[in-house]
Amino acid sequence: MADADPLIHDFACVLIAHINLVQSTGMRTGVAKQIEIFVKRMQRHCDWYHNQESVHDHLTQQFDAIELLLTRAVEFNRMRDEETLSECQRILAQTAIQATGASWPKTG
Fold first, then answer.
1. Are 39 and 67 in contact (CB under 8 A)?
2. Which tens digit of pLDDT belongs to each residue from 6-36?
3. Which domain of life does this protein belong to (predicted)?
4. How far apart are CA 17 and CA 21, in angstroms?
5. For the chain, which has fewer Cβ within 10 Å, the N-terminal or C-terminal residue?
6. 106, part of any domain
7. Residue-by-residue DSSP string for 29-88
8. Residue 4 confidence (pLDDT)
9. What average pLDDT is seen over the chain?
């Protein structure tokens, strides 16, 4: 969907930038809580949007894409904070952080 929908593409870019730039565990935890609240609000009326008679197919697809992006960003940050990223994920995260001029947090 990101290929064809500028909103989803731009939103994904913002999330990636946030993942790459925010080094504070406290900030990431606070953002995760806000995302959970937002997703619950989106889901509150999910049945209405997904109704067979609804004419909101594109909007429904956008909501689904936004929910997926948000939940995966939260999951990635949780794994990063718990130091459970796969080697491939860790390399990608380090590369992105190094590109910003920041440094990967020391562990141990």
1. yes
2. 999 999 999 998 988 888 999 999 999 999 9
3. Bacteria
4. 6
5. C
6. no
7. HHHHHHHHHHHHHHHHTHHHHT-TT-S-HHHHHHHHHHHHHHHHHHHHHHHHHTT---HH
8. 79
9. 85
